[in-house]
Amino acid sequence: MEGVELRLGTHDFRFDCTLPQGRIIAIAGPSGSGKSTFLNLLAGFEQPDRGRILLAGQDVSGLHPAERPVSLVFQDNNLFAHLDLFTNVGLGISPSLKLSKEDRERVSEALARVGLPGFEKRKPGTLSGGERQRAAFARALVRDKPILLLDEPFAALDPGLRSGMVELLKALHRETGNTVLIVSHDPAEVRRLADHAVFIDGGTIKLAAPVKIFLETDGIPALTTFLQH
Question: What is the model's pTM?
Answer without folding.
Answer: 0.86
